[in-house]
Amino acid sequence: MAKFVALVTRTLKEGKTYDDYRRAWFHSNGFGVPTTMYTVVNVSNPREITSIGIVEAEVDQMEGLLGLDVKDRLANPLDDVMESSITRTFGLVAAVDDFSPAGALTYVEPSVDGVATEYDELAKTFGVVSDLIASASRMRDIEKAAEHQI
C-alpha cells in the first residue's frame, strides 16, 4: 500500500467564486479506497485554489482510480469556472513526521504509518505511476477533444 499525492492548482475566472468552484469540482462518485482531499485557497491570491488529494492504494489500483477521476472530471468540467492554465504535481509520500511536540526533536528514519521507507523501492514505483498518470491525461485530452468536435 502506498500513499499517492496529487496537487492541482487552478485560478478562478474573474467574477467566479469559491462556491462556484466547489460545486463544479466536487466529485459525484467516490474512489472506493481511502482518499482525503484538502482544498487550499492562496492567502496572497484568493482566486488561486490548490486541491491536494491523498490516496492510499496499491500501484495496480492506480489505473482504475485515475480512470474514475478522468470520467468524473469530463462529466463535471471546470472550464466555465477556472482559467485554462493548471499546474499538476503528483508524488508518493516518502515520510510522515510529527513535529507537534514543543522543544527539541530527535531525528527519526523516514517511515509512513510505521513502515520504514526504502527510497530505492519507492523510486521503482515512480516510473510506473508516472506512466499511468500520463496515460490518464492523454485519455482525458482525447475524450475532451472528441466532445468538442461533436
Written description of the protein model:
- Helices cover 35% and strands 25% of the residues.
- With 150 residues, it is of the alpha+beta class.
- The strands form two sheets. A four-stranded antiparallel beta sheet has the order 2-3-1-4, with helices on one face. A two-stranded antiparallel ribbon has the order 5-6.
- α2 packs parallel to α3.
- The radius of gyration is 18 Å and the shape is globular.
- The protein starts with a strand and ends with a helix.
- 7% of the residues are buried.
Describe the structure concisely for a colleague.
With 150 residues, the chain is of the alpha+beta class. It has 3 helices and 6 strands.
Topology readout:
Blueprint: E1 2-11, H1 18-25, E2 35-41, E3 48-57, H2 62-75, E4 87-92, E5 111-112, E6 115-116, H3 119-149
Antiparallel strand pairs: 1-3, 1-4, 2-3, 5-6
